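Q: For a teaching handout, I want to show students what a protein-ligand complex looks like in token form. Below are the inputs, and the small molecule is C2E. Please produce the holo structure.
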Amino acid sequence: MIRLDPGSYLVRQGDAPTCAYLIESGCVEVLAHGAAGERLLAVLGRGEIVGEMALIDQAPRTASVRARDACLLMPITAESLEKRLAGADPVLRLVLGTVLDRYRSLLGVAAAVPLPRSAQALRSAAYAELRLEEEFAHAIADGQIHVHYQPIVSLVDDRLTGFEALARWLHPTRGLIPPASFVPVAEASGSSDALTRACLARVIADMPAMRARAERRGGHVADLRVSVNISGHDLMAPTFVRELARQVTDAGGSPDALTLELTETVLVRNPSEAADALEEARALGFRIAVDDFGTGYSTLNYIRTLPIDTLKIDKTFVQGMADCATTRSIVASTLMLAASLEIAVVGEGVELAEQHALLQMLGCDYGQGYLYGRPTPLAQALPLIEGWSAVEAPRPVISAPFA
Ligand code: C2E
Ligand code: CA
Ligand code: CA
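A: Here is the structure, written as tokens, with C2E included.
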């Protein structure tokens, strides 16, 4: 962070600075110098960027920048910009690289640090991304999005309590594409709400058959609930939750049997908007689960204030518990906190009987993972409901004491 006193210079005409600055507070003046003296070109304030030409080239500057009042500025170096771009979307990098190259060639300058160029690899990655985006736009309308169901099991009495609905894209030539490849495309292209609606429509259509099998199985299976993943960004759209509820009721379903799963990011970034949307979702009958709990944020405050029914402890914690005392303590404290707030907990990624037994011992309410079943199409989920029986779990093997 750079502090500038009123009247002091950040850049003088003829300097060759190596970074731009984000203005945290105060105002700066951009000044041109000519035969007639100083001329004010611009006044820039909080939230604006000054000195961005340093990111284009490191030639001596023709203007000066002077603090009008006390200022705080955050430097942005060409190297840090390049590092950020290296991990960014290839389409963004391709377009930005091309624009910068054209701008530099207009100015007849060389780059300070060569920014990503239109290399063949980048062009191919950008092309593949754009093609996937275009194909995804048709995938929903063409019925290529399918739903697989993964069981969620009560660790109290081993009953099957429901399923998580997980989207699958059955591409006509490329086969089954996993959600990790297309959910980011859906989000980037603004069609994540269409994806949610497509999954929800499938779930509502499939639920009567699930219920019928559950009734035949009697007490071994609870009143089945189905969880649907929704993108955080969609939750912020003012009418999204209401429209989802309308879609459910119009199709003859009920929000009471559905849980909406959201990751922490959106809840932490926009706590007040998220609170309003979650309150509305709950009032309409949906339950709310926080997905991948523990992976995003160090603060747990939001779970005290937001209307949340369930926490889903991320699989990295569940799978790390047996060998790591600290991980086990994190899971145990999460369970205690959730219990005190009357929030149910699902342990995700349960693959081994030891993990199942350990979660049970720590008082976790539900488990989900390959141990109970992989995500499967409805045709295989239905016999699973009918044939459901308790998990045979040994006593937990603990190789490290609690931290
Ligand atoms: P998620 O919501 O955390 O879903 C659980 C993921 O963990 C699923 O991967 C599931 O197959 C996998 N999994 C379950 N049990 C185990 C286990 O025991 N071991 C291991 N290693 N993995 C296990 P999947 O189906 O590939 O989904 C990945 C992610 O894609 C989901 O993570 C979710 O964030 C997202 N996703 C899936 N369907 C949708 C959807 O309809 N809408 C949105 N917005 N996101 C979705
Ligand atoms: Ca989920
Ligand atoms: Ca998860």
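A: Two things your students might notice: The mean pLDDT is 89. Residues 150, 166-167, 178-180, 183, 192, 195-196, 199, 229-231, 261, 291-292, 315, 349-351, 369-370, 375 surround C2E (ligand 1) (CB under 6 Å).
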